[in-house]
Amino acid sequence: MASTTREHRPTAERRAQLLDAAVAVMRDGGIQAATTRAVADRAGLPQGAFHYCFRSKDEMFSALLERELDASLGNAWEAVAHTRDLETGIAAALRAILDRVRSDPEYHLLTAELVDVAARTPELAHIASREHTAYVDQTDRILRQWQESVGTPLSVDSQLLAQVLVAASSGITSAWLSARDDEAAHESIALLSSALAVKAAQQDLRA
Amino acid sequence: MASTTREHRPTAERRAQLLDAAVAVMRDGGIQAATTRAVADRAGLPQGAFHYCFRSKDEMFSALLERELDASLGNAWEAVAHTRDLETGIAAALRAILDRVRSDPEYHLLTAELVDVAARTPELAHIASREHTAYVDQTDRILRQWQESVGTPLSVDSQLLAQVLVAASSGITSAWLSARDDEAAHESIALLSSALAVKAAQQDLRA
DNA sequence: GTCTATATGCAGATAGAC
DNA sequence: GTCTATCTGCATATAGAC
Asked: Does residue A63 form part of some domain?
């Protein structure tokens, strides 16, 4: 019996199944490796299944991008909200972000590649852009929350500080992904946290 | 006459010609677009030419990676050496880096993609790693130079500051490449320069 | 919805004349 | 070194039975 008939499943479920498989394939071999055959195989489905879940490979890629970038948001900066000391909070959050990357470098290499490809592709550029804005906004929200809970206002605009924190985390993780140097990453986190906290909390010391 | 005979050229020259063409093709369509045919076409050579310049596509990719990453080093942090004030120097250097990216976003998107792919590919990972180290070392050298010319020593290790500066620049450029927000980038540069300069030059103000 | 079989095209690499 | 022609395999996508 060459053909095993499979159970009928709602399309949404099959799509998720294929997206999961696509991530698995890409984790190993990068975006290039994600052919429709490889993805369908990994999902345990015949290659033909691909095309009644997605109109084309491009459509799947777009769906994947949206799903993964959204998921990778997480609550990265949550740690800040739970400390009284800004420096401690920033350092803890940066360490948490680094730990997530260290625990699954392939996945984070993949999201970086996804963002690059999206930024270069006209039909996808808005996804990368929207994702970045959402990430900054979420960080901003946590900073305001911290500000309220502590009472003392920041001496810099929270939105601006959020932007810088996001840039700092992306710079540190990308350095780590290239060099895999734990000590360098932790030293950088310590210095950055301290520098930014001093700046953000300073009551014009020299005025 | 369907076949125009071409002049004989040293292999090194042909290789450079193909690498240039590969960059041109990738700038437009990303790494995926760089098929041996597309690259040879862009170079004005027949597809067969590819294989007496490079043993395989992988070999070309490796050569390309090495050449482009090395070229993209530039003297990015040179600006620091030429100012007495560290904050001014850091800000100028970061703005110069951002300007280079703004003047050719496609190229810098490409180098980012190259680094990602290299970091994931076992045979290429060392190139990305070595490149990153070289970049930090070069920045460190400029910081030491500044330190000597100014007389006052930094209050943080110059190598560490160099690491952080490299991370900061990569975070800011990658944010800009996603969101294309000039104002945000310049604000971030100002805040980071100020925060890091205060930290790096502080004579233990609170001691 | 599910599956097999297949159409069509392009990929990387090579052979062999010049 | 240079070129054309071609081998071989895999890519995406579709057709059509169940």
From this structure: no
